[in-house]
Design brief:
This protein has nine helices and seven strands; from the N terminus they run βαβαβαβαβααβαααβ. The protein is α/β, with parallel strands linked by helices. InterPro entries: NAD(P)-bd_dom_sf (IPR036291), Sc_DH/Rdtase_CS (IPR020904), SDR (IPR050259), SDR_fam (IPR002347).
Length: 253
Amino acid sequence: MSTNPQPRVALVTGGASGIGLAIAQRLAADGNEVAIADLSIDAAEQAASDIGGSTIAVDMNVADSDAVTAGLAQVVGQLGQIEILVNCAGWDDLMPFVKSDEALWDKVIEINYKGVLRTTHGVLPNMIQNGYGRIVNIGSDAGRVGSSMEAVYAGAKAGVIAFTKTIAREAARKGVTANVVCPGPTDTPMLQGVVAAAPDADKVIAAMTSGVAMKRLGKPDEVAAAVAFFAREEAGFITGQTLSVSGGLTMAG
């Protein structure tokens, strides 16, 4: 396994379960010191304990600016300046747009879009000052091609993609890269929870996989592999890119 020449301090939001946990595990295996930030501190502490080493847990609600500021300060105090930021925290509730309301819009945007703004705004100045940084934002193929029942989520993820490209341009000569990994339908606790709440769960899974060339759900480890690549020093000439890990659901030209 390829590793970084030196350990880097990595923060993974939403890192206590699903894709985030797989990313935290992979970054730690690559030799980095990892902070697992999550809304569930108990789950984050368990994940940090399971990974071991210098991995730490951070209580962070990315929808709360004060909580993000406090969480970032904890990471810097315990591990040092954050050099790798992975924004994985996310949330959605499947429903037709016409049945949604502004409370849902606000929650989806606060978590999936503004959460990315908050953490990036907190770590980017030091990355620029130190001349090194890797930002990897978890998007979604919903943000590339749209997705029925996920109108606001898809819009928020499209915003993440455009925001990441802009950060990539602004920081391109400062040693900082910014890229997006877009999972397709992936077997995670969040997805299982969303599906379980649907009246016809089997049909929901079938619909999710029908457009996937491989005809299956993705695995968190498969997404983590792409994130780990962007996070490495050797990927320093790659920035502003959007990579789908979706079994062929989206094939960009």
